[in-house]
Amino acid sequence: MIGKLNHVAIAVPDLQAASAQYRDTLGAQVGAPQDLPEHGVTVVFVTLPNTKIELLHPLGADSPIVGFLEKNPAGGIHHLCYEVADIGAARDRLTAAGARVLGDGEPKIGAHGNPVLFLHPKDFTGTLVELEEVGKAAEPEAAS
Amino acid sequence: MIGKLNHVAIAVPDLQAASAQYRDTLGAQVGAPQDLPEHGVTVVFVTLPNTKIELLHPLGADSPIVGFLEKNPAGGIHHLCYEVADIGAARDRLTAAGARVLGDGEPKIGAHGNPVLFLHPKDFTGTLVELEEVGKAAEPEAAS
């Protein structure tokens, strides 16, 4: 069911410092900060040859990552995002298997304009998992 | 400098349960457990179309991930591994930039038989970063 790893999201206390580390120290391709007020984050994309790192910083007092940074002041890996071809089918399969979808269980439009949902970390080895629908091309076996 | 994301390593308290979640619930391609006594871990590889997830479980009392699982009993993301073409050059660039290499600073042979080193999480936004030398093909710009 899951396809590519779309991105690894890392919450950071200082977006400028983290961007400089990835650009200057690690020599990666680092984009400009983008405010996503509807998601309560400012993001910087680090583009690797096979996937992306998303550096996340809180935007606004209601940011969903404020609590995470309070617990992890130096920053830390916040979630993994896997691509799926059909998020409704994914949700049905997951809930049938007993996995808990966060929120009201319905997909929302995520930071890339695609439907996303988040799974309860306790159901996935302590890892917050985001699923993002990217269309049928996400699953090689579905394209054949 | 860094190339592909080689893998995301997730420490898990129950390797069989985590393997079943990734295989049956998330529908991913999951390998058989491999004991790596020289690294103090048993690993299961989850192969995604563009990268790998490494599920890690302690092997032996001196396992380097025992402490992590004591702090994170449900499991959690342990480290990210980026590929580099030349680990000696990477180490020199990093230490010149003030980043701390764990241990004695010399690359070791990692779980895939390639030279690896680990960087101090405090220098990289709370993320434990592994660098793995995979040869010149790791950096597209170096191959041209």
UniProtKB/TrEMBL annotation, chains A, B:
CDD domains: MMCE (cd07249)
InterPro entries reported in the protein's UniProt record: Glyas_Bleomycin-R_OHBP_Dase, MeMalonyl-CoA_epimerase, MMCE/EMCE_epimerase, VOC_core
Domain spans labelled VOC: 4-134
Annotated GO biological process: L-methylmalonyl-CoA metabolic process
Molecular function via GO: metal ion binding; methylmalonyl-CoA epimerase activity
UniProt record similarity statement: Belongs to the methylmalonyl-CoA epimerase family.
Keyword set, alphabetical order: Cobalt, Isomerase, Metal-binding
EC number, as in UniProt: 5.1.99.1
Top-level EC class: isomerase
Pfam family, one: Glyoxalase_4
Catalytic activities: (R)-methylmalonyl-CoA = (S)-methylmalonyl-CoA
Organism of origin: Jannaschia seosinensis
PANTHER family linked to this entry: METHYLMALONYL-COA EPIMERASE (PTHR43048), METHYLMALONYL-COA EPIMERASE, MITOCHONDRIAL (PTHR43048:SF3)
Entry protein name: methylmalonyl-CoA epimerase
